[in-house]
Design a protein that fits this description.
Largest sheet of chain A: 6 strands, antiparallel
Mean pLDDT of chain B: 96
CATH class of the largest domain in chain B: Alpha Beta
Distance between the termini of chain A: 7 Å
CATH superfamily of chain A: RNA polymerase II/Efflux pump adaptor protein, barrel-sandwich hybrid domain
Largest interface: A-B, 14 and 19 residues
Largest sheet of chain B: 6 strands, mixed
Oligomer: heterodimer
Number of helices of chain B: 8
Number of strands of chain A: 9
Low-confidence stretches of chain B: none
CATH class of chain A: Mainly Beta
Strand content of chain A: 25-35%
Strand order of the largest sheet of chain B: 10-11-12-9-3-13
Helix content of chain B: 10-25%
Mean pLDDT of chain A: 96
Number of strands of chain B: 19
Shape of chain A: globular
Structural class of chain B: alpha+beta
CATH architecture of the largest domain in chain B: 2-Layer Sandwich
Shape of chain B: globular
Radius of gyration of chain A: 13 Å
Strand order of the largest sheet of chain A: 1-2-3-9-8-5
Radius of gyration of chain B: 20 Å
Helix content of chain A: 10-25%
Order of helices and strands of chain A: EEEHEEEEEHHEH
Chain lengths: ~130, ~375
């Protein structure tokens, strides 16, 4: 299972890439593998707020709809519009083209609550 | 991704499923594979080639005795006399209010011996109900633990079973398949050609492996319950517990052709005849979402003209059609093909259209 070293993770299988005061959010390789066949992605709208630990997006596989939880709080700066027509990018490239949304970090202290790659690997038994 | 409790039953093929990388889920009291690699891939394998399902969780009840035919004709809605030994028939077990206790396939094995293939979650209720109704006039046995069931489905299925390729649709016969003695029926739950095979549990693994091996050249895939669900939904085959329940009748579900009102007395007949004559208040309808909408799921509200008119009973993205599809009950006056409805999904409504059955139109 791919768990890049430069990312932070949540217990609910989201990843965060910190770029200055911006957090890019997606779901992990493990999550996309468990969900399989992603057919629809519903993302937070631009300028909405997301709150750490709260539902903010939905990823739907053939079998079920799964909530995505915001790893950090802040205003949404961008949502990955490509996913409207190509939701399968989340399966094919979960850490790249399959990113979900970008948030302007409100409290960088929240990053300390996230899991390291090692901690996430232990969580999923990888 | 919930945990699986150890009270769930396992089929004889459990370790074979794990070895194939299956994701296991609870279903009807059993731990069953929902998928091996991808529901979409498994679904398309069945539509285009051939797939193999372990459906050993399903129940097998055997009714026998010289009054078996008359007994079954009194407790089931279809007319057993329209069938004969060597044939299969889709039918309902209804209560005296016409509510559907179960839907099942009745296999007429021998002149005085019938096999009822029933839903896993209903085995004990069906068995208890039939035993009570029989009151000793016929023998009712639960053979669910002595029979393993595999479903081989898809247009290439007959190529794998040349010995049974001559079986007619909804016929059943005894065959040797790869050295395993089986009852083989030309039935299924996918809308494709194919077979269901009944064998002794001790032979199940040999049969499973043999079919996967000789199916390799045809691109066979082991398929889970996820694909089984999307395949049956595209055909609008009902799932008991969702689309049909003891609170709904075959008339409301649009399945009156499996109710032989003309055959004489049977359980539920009075109510069902009344519904057929006077009409029903609600109907089960298939629908298709407009492109771009999220997939519908069970229990989502259905709206028409701004009013809530019903609820989705089954819904999923259709791998064959590439849009969301579903079924649900709506008021009868709204149950017209090509009528617009809306499905409420996470607080927003999305347009859909009521369709004719099946949602996946068959090739000519």
């Amino acid at each position: 299972m791919n768990i890049p070293n430069d990312l932070k993770y949540t217990k609910t299988h989201e990843w965060v890439r910190v770029e200055g005061d911006i957090a890019v959010v997606g779901i992990t390789d493990h999550a996309q593998h468990e969900l399989t066949d992603i057919v629809y992605v519903e993302l937070p709208t631009m300028d909405s707020e997301v709150h750490a630990g709260k539902e903010c997006a939905v990823v739907e596989s053939v079998k079920a709809a799964s909530d995505i939880y915001a790893p950090v709080s802040g205003d949404v700066l961008a949502a990955n519009e490509q996913l409207a027509n190509a939701p399968e990018l989340v399966n094919k490239d979960p850490y790249g083209q399959g990113w979900l949304f970008k948030v302007k970090l409100r409290d960088s202290g929240e990053l300390g609550e996230l899991l390291t790659p090692q901690e996430y690997a232990a969580l999923i038994g990888a | 991704m919930g945990g699986i409790t150890n009270s769930l039953k396992r089929t004889l093929l459990h370790s074979a499923h794990i070895a194939l990388g299956a994701k296991m889920v609870p279903f009807g009291g059993w731990e069953m594979p929902v998928l091996y690699t991808s529901i979409r891939e498994e679904h398309l394998a069945v539509r285009e080639r051939v797939g193999l399902f372990d459906v050993s969780h399903m129940g097998e009840l055997v009714v026998s005795g010289f009054r078996a035919e008359a007994f079954l004709n009194r407790v089931l809605t279809n007319d057993v006399r329209r069938s004969q030994a060597g044939r299969a028939q889709y039918t309902f077990l209804c209560n005296d209010q016409g509510g559907i206790l179960d839907d099942l396939v009745l296999y007429w094995l021998e002149p005085m011996r019938f096999l009822l293939l029933v839903n896993a979650a209903n085995i004990y209720r069906d068995f208890g109900w039939l035993t009570e109704q029989a009151a000793g006039t016929v023998r009712v046995e639960n053979h669910s633990d002595e029979i393993a069931t595999l479903a081989l489905q898809g247009p290439l299925a007959p190529r794998l079973l040349p010995m049974a390729a001559g079986l007619g649709i909804f016929h059943i016969g005894a065959f040797d398949v790869c050295g395993v003695r089986c009852w083989v029926a030309r039935t299924g739950y996918t809308g494709e050609d194919g077979f269901e095979l009944f064998c002794a549990p001790d032979d199940a693994l040999q049969l499973w492996n043999a079919l996967l091996t000789c199916g390799a050249e045809f691109g066979i895939k082991p398929c889970g319950l996820g694909a089984r669900d999307t395949l049956r939904l595209e055909m609008c085959y009902p799932l008991h517990g969702q689309d049909i329940t003891p609170e709904t009748t075959p008339i409301e579900a649009g399945l009156s052709r499996f109710v032989a009102l003309d055959k004489g007395e049977f359980l539920g007949r009075a109510v069902l005849a009344g519904q057929k004559e006077k009409g029903v208040h609600r109907k089960l309808v298939p629908f298709q979402m407009t492109a771009g909408a999220p997939p519908p799921r069970p229990h989502y509200p259905i709206f028409a003209g701004g009013k809530r008119v019903g609820e989705v009973t089954s819904g999923a993205p259709s791998p064959s059609l590439g849009v969301g599809i579903g079924m649900g009950y709506v008021a009868t006056e709204l149950a017209q093909a090509s009528s617009p409805i809306e499905i409420e999904i996470r607080g927003k409504t999305y347009p859909a259209t009521i369709e004719n059955k099946p949602l996946l139109k068959r090739k000519p």
